[in-house]
Amino acid sequence: MDHTEMDQIGRAWPASGGPGRWERGAAAVEYALLVMLVAVAIVGSVLAFGLQVKALFEVPWPS
């Protein structure tokens, strides 16, 4: 293992034993991507099935 790899490990896991700033930042980006993926799935499903679901709840009124 060379010196740069040791520096990266030291930044990711500081002496306190917990994840460092670099590791927390990576986790935040991963969670943001997951939230974005869920939002895209919700918007896509509403656009795809919105009119079909609306038709299920429409009650024809006698004229």
Tell me what you see in this structure.
This protein has 63 residues and is mainly α. It has one domain. The protein is built from two helices and no strands. It has helices at 3-12, 21-57.
What would you say about this model in short?
The chain is an all-alpha fold and 63 residues long.
Question: How is this fold's topology laid out?
Answer:
Blueprint: H1 3-12, H2 21-57
Largest sheet geometry? none
Output the radius of gyration: 24 Å
Number of beta strands: 0
Domain count:
1
* Tertiary shape: rod-shaped
Average pLDDT number: 77
Strand content: under 5%
Task: Spell out the key features of this protein.
single chain; 63 residues; mainly alpha; 75% helix; rod-shaped
